Amino acid sequence: MSHRHSIAFVFATALICQSFGSGDRVLGQDATLDAPSSSDVVEDQFIYKSVTDDSSGKSTELFVDWTRPADWSAEDSRPAAVFFHGGGWTGGKPGQFALHSKELAGHGMVCFRVKYRLLGKKSKTPPDNCVEDASDAFRYIRANASKFGIDPKRMASGGGSAGGHLAAYLGTMDDQVVDGASRKPAAMLLFNPVYDNGPGGWGTARVGDEFAKYSPAHNITKDDPPSIVFLGTKDNLIPVATAERFRDDCKEVGVRSELHLYEGQPHGFFNAKKTDGGGKIYRDTMEKTVAFLKSLNWIE
């Protein structure tokens, strides 16, 4: 299906309520997670892109939810994180990372959660729209860094599962600068990312022999940003060996990559949920994320 695209570089924001959306196994406000209170952060939404389906003529606006500290100013130059939700490229919602965003905003960051086009569940279409939207969103945010009060040189990509693939895709693929804006992040925050799309990896039914165009694990170079990766040892989509190989391949080319394994945990374990004893695992992953960002001198 072909699409006609028009990028709407409009900084029109609409104030939204606290958005703890129902993403892939996400717990809402009843989690005991010691995150900043709602008075400590501000949440808004803006449109980064409009797409028109040539076959139907229907136009769809793609949005980004963003969270910033209450003392934020457009004159700031804060570090930022751009999150992509999971859902196999076919489902999920940006709200999956609302709680992560709120917590990182409590550390002074500005966080963004991207809505991107999804693929049909029964189709065999490769994730071209997904990676295109992820790239466009990242570039849009960077191009408007002065309006968002962020430092364009301190932007991380982050995501879980298929969203982790998109975050890793931006970090490992050859950069494509459009109108002066790069899509390359300066760090990657990866939660059980499906970043091996080659033979024996995840998503091969969609990418086929062209897996090298999509697979972060097959595009690691010395120019890639540092990463932190979280994975459960019982993940049915990503073998531990895959994550260890990604870490080792990064190390071989001189790129820092941390791998944190969680014994007995399944896919999606990192989400705050009721079965997690009040968010203990979520809390641990966030503490490690904060420590990683501190080691980069992004936050104090």
TrEMBL record:
The keyword Hydrolase applies. Gene3D superfamilies: alpha/beta hydrolase (3.40.50.1820). One of its GO terms (molecular function) is triacylglycerol lipase activity. It comes from the Bacteria. Residues 74-180 form the BD-FAE-like domain. It holds the Pfam family BD-FAE. Keywords: Hydrolase. Belongs to the 'GDXG' lipolytic enzyme family. This is Lipase/esterase. It comes from Rhodopirellula baltica SWK14.
